[in-house]
Amino acid sequence: MQVKSISRIAIAVALLIVVSVVVPPIPLFLLPVPVTLQTAMVLLIGLLLSPNEAGFAVLLYLILGTLGLPVFAGGTGGIAIVLGPTGGFLLAMPIAALATAIMQRYWNTDNKFYKAAIAGIVATVIIHVLGIAVWTISLNVSLWSVIVSDAVFLPGDILKLIIVLLIWSRLARLSLFKYN
């Protein structure tokens, strides 16, 4: 692994921790899952890094939090968080980052912004599907009630995706993010 690759991974993990810990989670109504910037950072990592780097960076973040380091939203950590209602969203993040990076790198199209938008939408769907599944199982509630509750997050996720795409369009030009 090259120094440039290790640097990108370290920066990605650090930024994911910063948006998770420094930016407070926003609770919605009585839902057990808050609004965070973690998903936005995962999308950005997937768009900017190579598939191996993106997947490894977010997996490393997940491992650090699962081991008890306070790196998850609001400075929490531990296996209880991963097994709780928010666990599916966390477990989906490395998969979403990897999927985004794979689509970003290998999907052939002339419209790169369009490609990045589709990759971000697919990643968001991955995060929500796994998040809904674990949320339903962990609280032993009906799937339909969780799907309806999860729909509250979609407008914010659309806004986060738009902001991520605008940031990506600027950062992708930097030599740090040229991984070919």
From TrEMBL:
<keyword id="KW-0472">Membrane</keyword>
<keyword id="KW-0812">Transmembrane</keyword>
<feature type="transmembrane region" description="Helical">
    <location>
        <begin position="29"/>
        <end position="49"/>
    </location>
</feature>
<keyword id="KW-1003">Cell membrane</keyword>
<keyword id="KW-0813">Transport</keyword>
<keyword id="KW-1133">Transmembrane helix</keyword>
<comment type="similarity">
    <text>Belongs to the BioY family.</text>
</comment>
<feature type="transmembrane region" description="Helical">
    <location>
        <begin position="79"/>
        <end position="101"/>
    </location>
</feature>
<dbReference type="GO" id="GO:0015225">
    <property type="term" value="F:biotin transmembrane transporter activity"/>
</dbReference>
<feature type="transmembrane region" description="Helical">
    <location>
        <begin position="56"/>
        <end position="73"/>
    </location>
</feature>
<dbReference type="Pfam" id="PF02632">
    <property type="entry name" value="BioY"/>
</dbReference>
<feature type="transmembrane region" description="Helical">
    <location>
        <begin position="5"/>
        <end position="23"/>
    </location>
</feature>
<protein>
    <recommendedName>
        <fullName>Biotin transporter</fullName>
    </recommendedName>
</protein>
<feature type="transmembrane region" description="Helical">
    <location>
        <begin position="143"/>
        <end position="168"/>
    </location>
</feature>
<dbReference type="GO" id="GO:0005886">
    <property type="term" value="C:plasma membrane"/>
</dbReference>
<feature type="transmembrane region" description="Helical">
    <location>
        <begin position="113"/>
        <end position="137"/>
    </location>
</feature>
<dbReference type="InterPro" id="IPR003784">
    <property type="entry name" value="BioY"/>
</dbReference>
